[in-house]
Design brief:
With 324 residues, the chain is an alpha/beta fold. It has 10 helices and 12 strands. The chain has a single domain, classed as 2-enoyl-CoA Hydratase, Chain A, domain 1. Strands 1, 2, 3, 5, 6, 7, 9, 10 and 11 form a 9-stranded mixed beta sheet that branches. The chain is globular. About 8% of the residues have low confidence. Belongs to the peptidase S49 family.
């Protein structure tokens, strides 16, 4: 009996993080504001360099001692500084993300679009290793998209992920009893198989989100019918392939992104590139994606913990092949 209970609890901890008890050690919150640091250039006028990386979520991430800001919070804070500074004429958004939740991706898209509408400032996206699914979704408002020669992008689609425990629970003799108010109240439950009717309902939701994604791609990229159909398969593309189908505008490096942003914004070639950080970094440069050196923000084993743990049940604009 004890062995069965142990396995049941272990399953809950590993597959259902929301079920696991959370132990927190409270510490004073980080209150250092974002400050401007020049990472390139000495001339007049500015470009703001903002990094968007990792799995995109709207909720703060749990740290060992305190939560850390989500990508949505950090991007909105940086855009606000870029908006308030009249010397900033454009933004270079460095994207390295396989995507994330549907809602976080859509909020990022909305905030970048609203920033452009309010300010008239140009936005250039530079893609690094991966800018797929939600990472590409958030890039759509850009006036110009540059991908590194080795970038993987695309994955224009939706996936619904949820853990399933019913088979293993049956083997160890654990069950969950549910009382509900309506037939579909527990649809998607991890404790029982999904019915054919529920599968159809989930597919309708997936199709709805996918249609929104594909329509936004067409709105911003104006693809041919054949290329739009190919993109709609949700496959990923190399930079060369993405250029051919029209998902990006240029293959190059971050310096090419700076050059294009300066051109679009009417800035001189030696205008400054600034980043917003909470800490000073010696020998800072445009490839530094961090806003803070706080060890609290360092990830276990040097990888994104969100990509290691089983995902929370939900709908995602994400390419699972980029999990690392």
């Amino acid at each position: 009996m004890r062995l069965r209970l142990f396995f049941a609890l272990a399953l809950c901890v590993l597959l259902l993080p929301s079920c696991a008890p959370k132990i927190k050690i409270f510490a004073a919150p980080t209150t250092e504001p974002l400050k401007e640091f020049v990472v390139e250039g000495t001339g007049e006028g500015k470009l703001a360099l903002i990094h968007l990386q990792g799995m995109l979520v709207s909720q703060p991430k749990e740290g060992l001692l305190r939560p850390t800001p989500s990508q949505v919070q950090e991007l909105v804070s940086a855009l606000r500084l870029a908006e308030e500074d009249e010397a900033v004429k454009g933004v270079v958004l460095a994207v390295d993300s396989p995507g994330g939740t549907v809602t976080a991706s859509d909020i990022l898209y909305h905030e970048i679009t609203a920033f452009k509408q309010r300010t008239g400032k140009k936005v250039v996206v530079v893609m690094f290793d991966v800018a797929a699914s939600g990472g590409y979704y958030a890039s759509l408002p850009a006036d110009w998209i540059v991908a590194h020669p080795t970038t993987i992008t695309g994955s224009v689609g939706v996936i619904f992920m949820r853990p399933k425990l019913s088979g293993l629970m049956g083997k160890i003799g654990v069950d969950v009893e549910v009382s509900k108010s309506g037939r579909d109240k527990d649809m998607g439950s991890p404790f029982r198989p999904t019915t054919p009717e529920e599968t159809a309902l989930f597919q309708d939701i997936i199709d709805d989100y996918a249609t929104r994604f594909v329509n936004l791609v067409q709105q911003h990229r104006k693809l041919s019918s054949a290329n739009l159909e190919l993109v709609g398969t949700a496959r990923v593309f190399t930079a060369n392939q993405a250029l051919k189908v029209g998902l990006i505008d240029q293959i190059g490096y971050i310096q090419d992104g700076f050059a294009k942003a300066r051109q679009l914004a009417g800035l001189p070639k030696d205008s400054q590139v600034v980043a917003y950080r909470r800490d000073t970094y010696p020998d800072d440069n445009p490839y530094n994606p961090m806003t803070s050196a706080d060890p609290e923000k360092m990830n276990l084993l040097g990888v994104d913990a969100d990509m290691l743990l089983p995902p929370k049940a939900g709908f995602y604009y994400i390419w699972q092949g980029a999990a690392r």
